[in-house]
Amino acid sequence: MVLALAITVIFVSCKGNDTVSVTGVTLNKTVAELTVGDTETLTGTVMPENATDKRVEWTSSNEAVATVAGGVVTAITEGTATITVTTKDGTKTAGCLITVIEEDEEPVPVTGVTLDKPSIELKPGDSETLTATVVPENATNKNISWESSSDAVATVTDGVVTAIAKGTATITVITEEGEKTAKCTVTVEVPVVEPDVYVVGTEMDSSYTTYAVLWKNGTLERLSSGSSEANFVYVSGDDVYIAGRNALRATLWKNGTAQQLSEMNSFARSVYVAGNDVYVAGMVNDEEYVPHATIWKNGTATTLSNNSSYINSVAVLAGDVYAVGDEMGVDNNMYATLWINGVAQRLSDNPSEAKSVHISENDVYIAWNGDGAYIWKNGTNRMISNNAAGVNNVYASGDDVYAAGAYMERDNNFAIMWENYAVKELSSTYSNAYCVAVYGDNIYVAGEDAGTAGMSRATIWKNSTPQTLSNNASRANSIFVK
């Protein structure tokens, strides 16, 4: 017989132990700004509200900027950090960006400003930087601006001063706060460029031979190895032209190279360059030794008179050629004469001599002597001295007129010059002034002066101060300053 055992199994259900999982977490702030040292409490809310495990952890992305403990954030130093809350159940997260700023300080007021230089000197085109210092050093607002009292003289940009033209300007730096100022005086000077001074004349050696010479800036150069004379110098570009005489023949030197202008006994007294044309003036003796006024244009001679005559000076204006000198009349007296393009006109009805012609802008000036010393301007004569003085040369610059000559007393000559027709004595010893030139504010006169040496020596006067060019017997006939 089989014994059957019946077993009864009973199952029990425990419904009271069910778990609610975390689905997320939020923070009461997603951004916050703190001042160094301040704190802020962040509140984390775990969801759902009936979640079984609501524990969370707090972390900072940059504890050098901000730390966090239990949601309390402490600002450490200036910067940013992200505070993150993370749930234990499900590692759900939420974050808050914390910005930490420095504690606001009281502004430090500006009390003044200084410049590193009280004054500067510049040439046009040069620049120099001025440095401004706002005081106190810890002033809150250090903004500044710059200005110049004359932008035509000097400009300023961010402290960089640029010189424009001659003059004086005041550069001022100004603070934005308080308008405090400091100043620098800027003096702009145009550099003085010493010109080249060309002087020609004659010098005698120990054998009593007279040589044509050129002094450039006081340095002597002989133009010939034999008896000769240099009467006039003209500089055009880099070329130096000298009119004179060599071996009794009219000669033109160009940069030291001689060109004989005539086969006859002759001399050249003046030279003028107009564009590409070179004009030389003087005289040529005919076979009977009668002198005839002559002009050479680029080496080709033109005789201006069949009478006894000669030319002392030539100049060109707008294509018209002006030449002055003397021409003999039917009474056998010599008369000051002006030739314009070869056509003669007398400057005086009395015996006289024309010494020099000068062109200034559109004006023509002539120096001549007769019953007195005269300056002729555009057809009008003006006596500058009675017959006790003679004029040798005239020069005009702008509205100013200058002349050189000598005052004659008994057997002596004394060098003089005229400035706007007023006489100035150059020497109290035997002397003569033959030529005058002006450069800038300086007046140059060339001539000869015996001084205390007892013999005439080539001399130039610069603003009436003499400079002897040679210790030998000599004279300076012409001067050109460039």
What does this structure look like?
With 482 residues, the protein is mainly β. The chain folds into three domains: 23-101, Immunoglobulin-like (Sandwich); 112-188, Immunoglobulin-like (Sandwich), CATH 2.60.40.1080; 197-481, Peptidase/esterase 'gauge' domain (Methylamine Dehydrogenase, Chain H, 7 Propeller). The chain contains no helices and 46 strands. The strands form 13 sheets. The chain has a four-stranded mixed beta sheet, with no helix packed on it. A hairpin with a 2-residue loop joins strand 15 (154-157) and strand 16. It is rod-shaped. The N and C termini lie far apart (158 Å). Mean pLDDT is 93; it is low at 1-16.
Judged by helices, strands and strand pairing, the structural class is: mainly beta
Low-confidence stretches: 1-16
CATH topology of the largest domain: Methylamine Dehydrogenase, Chain H
Q: Compute the average pLDDT.
A: 93
User: What is the fourth-level CATH superfamily of the largest domain?
Assistant: Peptidase/esterase 'gauge' domain
Q: Roughly what fraction of the amino acids lie in strands?
A: over 45%
N-to-C CA distance: 158 Å
| Percent in helix | under 10%
CATH class membership of the largest domain:
Mainly Beta
Strand order of the largest sheet: 2-9-8-5
Tell me the count of domains.
3
Shape category: rod-shaped
The CATH architecture term of the largest domain is: 7 Propeller
Report the oligomer. single chain
Number of helices: 0
Radius of gyration over C-alpha positions, nearest whole angstrom: 50 Å
**Largest sheet descriptor:** 4 strands, mixed
Beta strand count:
46
